[in-house]
User: Fold this.
Amino acid sequence: MRPTISRSELGHFLRLLAVAALLLGGIGMAISGGSSALELIAMR
Assistant:
């Protein structure tokens, strides 16, 4: 039996994943090059 996930819950989970990925990517870019992180934030 597979647990049922409502559409809103799935959307919330995907949004959290996207935010986490953006934060991790921004941190990684800030370490390798500060200007890249600023560009990423400006593109959002």
About this structure: The two ends are 39 Å apart (CA to CA). The helical segments are 7-32, 34-43. Residues 20-44 form one domain.
